[in-house]
Amino acid sequence: MAKITFQNLAHSYFKSEPAENWALKPIDLVLESGRPYALVGPSGCGKTTILNIISGIITPKQGKILFDNDDVTNLPVKKRNVAQVFQFPTIYKSMNVFDNLAFPLICRNMEKNKIKERVGEIAEQIGISNKLNRSAFKLGADEKQLVSLGRGLVRDDVTALLMDEPLTVIDPQLKFELRKKIKQIVEGKNITIIYVTHDQYEAMTFADELLVMSLGVLVQRGTPEQLFEVPATKYVGNFIGSPAMNFLKVEADNGKARFGNLVFDTNEKVHNDLREELEIGIRPEYVKVAKSADANTISATILERDNMGAYQVLNCKVDGGFIKMKVGMDEVSQGTSSINLLFPKEKLHLYHKGELIAN
């Protein structure tokens, strides 16, 4: 159980690679003890590199990593006291399920009766109590990953629990329940958890705080609500949320954002010296059907509708761009082709060169 600190940490897998191409660009980061975090981003963004640096599988090319106040940058894996669960199941096929779960405890010379008690507790929590005597070789892929997860959770002395896309092979219907189970198991145990995934929903339903990565750079960290409501960059606006955030190119006009003949009020003040790559952004969830020609309204043509069961997504064309909005199934009738859209000021954000403008 430890606070994990990165100090000017960076890594490259090649000796003479230019710094701008490094797998992990210089990063300063503090992960507090006892909290669940999610590293989220597309393949190749640096998530697994961070995880492997924490575990000791990789020694960083630059900087330090601290557990609490102890420098562990060059400490080997076996001395870091971390548990790691990988994307694909890592189990001992020659053992049964009980022995797989018990192995980390046997290696630490725990008493047999305590091993039996702890294994039974974890097996019940993850739903495999009835499989303890089965050969691990005969398990299905999802069952093997459950055993792998259980082996990572069975220890109560770990500094951190690292999970690298651990639910990839799990049946989709089981994923949500399993994430809840993992959180319940570790809740109150003061274990620092770092969960790596490319799935935004997986990250948002598991972690208290998300760290969004892109090309080896940490672009934003925050709660799921913070990332959804106020994306710090266009990248985050596009990556978090489905459909992605809407963006329209605008021009500065006396502190407001001009879109063609329309002028929008935004959360952020528009400085007149911002002349290039200026855009407004709004989530599809917050675009409303305008009942009158109030401020921040724009006319649009409905191009197509995506029926999502409980709601529909309208794909609309405006003069100079495209907008998606989420509405109720009966909110906009099927025969409607023209519509007025309202962009509420409190939900409308301004971006310059892809980054949120600070007030």
What does this protein structure show overall?
The chain is of the alpha+beta class and 359 residues long. The chain has helices at 47-55, 97-106, 112-125, 141-153, 172-186, 200-206, 224-229, 234-239, and strands at residues 4-11, 24-31, 36-40, 62-67, 70-71, 82-85, 160-164, 192-197, 209-214, 217-222, 246-249, 251-253, 256-259, 262-264, 278-282, 288-289, 297-307, 311-318, 321-328, 338-342, 349-352, 355-356. The chain is globular, with a radius of gyration of 25 Å. A six-stranded mixed β-sheet has the order 6-7-8-3-9-10, with helices on both faces. The chain has a five-stranded antiparallel β-sheet with strand order 16-20-17-18-19, with no helix packed on it. A hairpin with a 2-residue loop joins strand 13 (256-259) and strand 14. Helix 2 (97-106) packs parallel to helix 4 (141-153).
Map the helices and strands:
Blueprint lengths: L3 E8 L12 E8 L4 E5 L6 H9 L6 E6 L2 E2 L10 E4 L11 H10 L5 H14 L15 H13 L6 E5 L7 H15 L5 E6 L2 H7 L2 E6 L2 E6 L1 H6 L4 H6 L6 E4 L1 E3 L2 E4 L2 E3 L13 E5 L5 E2 L7 E11 L3 E8 L2 E8 L9 E5 L6 E4 L2 E2 L3
Parallel strand pairs: 3-8, 3-9, 6-7, 7-8
Antiparallel strand pairs: 1-2, 1-4, 4-5, 9-10, 11-15, 12-13, 13-14, 15-21, 16-20, 17-18, 17-20, 18-19, 21-22
